[in-house]
Amino acid sequence: MNKYLYFIFGFVVCLIFAGFGSFADERKYNDNISYLENVISNQKAVIDSLSVPIIKKEDNWNTFIKALIYIESKNNDNAVNEYTDAVGCLQITKIYVDQLQKWGYNYTYDDRYNRQKSIEMFNITNIILNPDKDLHFALVIHNGRASYNYHLAVFNKYNQLMKQNE
C-alpha cells in the first residue's frame, strides 16, 4: 500500500512541476502527458527497486530495528537533534510520545532516552499502524519526511546486519 502512496505523491508533484494546466495547444498537452507517464514509470521502477519483503520472523524485525537505531543515532541513547527535538537511540519526538499517550500508553518524554522504552514505543506504533511489519511503511510512520537516501541507508545497514547474522 505504501508504494501506491509514493506513486500518487510522485504523480502530484509531477503535475505541479510540469504545469499540467498551462498548455496552450493539444500537441504540448500530449507531449507533457507522455513526459509525465515516463516520469511516473521511472519513479515506480525506483520504488519497486526499494522493495523489501514484509518481515514475518521476529529476528529480522529486531535486525531492522538495530539498523534503524544505527542510522538514527549511531547507537547513542543520548543523541539529541536540536532542530527537531528528537532524542534517544530512535530519535523519537514529543509528538510520537503524545500519540502513544492518546492511545492510552503512559510513556513520558524522558522515556525517549531509554533504549528499551524507545523500542517498545516503536513496536507499539507499528503493531497499531503497521501490523504486517512492512519495512518501508515502518520508516514512513517513524519519519514521514525521510528522504530516499534515508531509506537506502537504513536498508543498506539492514542488509549488512543480515549478512553478518548468516
Describe the structure in your own words.
- This protein is mainly α and 166 residues long.
- The protein folds into 2 domains: 2-49; 58-165, no CATH class.
- The protein contains 7 helices and 2 strands.
- The chain has helices spanning 2-18, 26-49, 58-73, 94-102, 115-129, 135-142, 148-165; strands at 80-81, 86-87.
- A two-stranded antiparallel ribbon has the order 1-2.
- A hairpin with a 4-residue loop joins strand 1 (80-81) and strand 2 (86-87).
- Helix 1 (2-18) packs antiparallel against helix 2 (26-49) and helix 3 (58-73) crosses helix 7.
- The chain is globular, with a radius of gyration of 19 Å.
- The two termini are 30 Å apart.
- The relative contact order is 0.12.
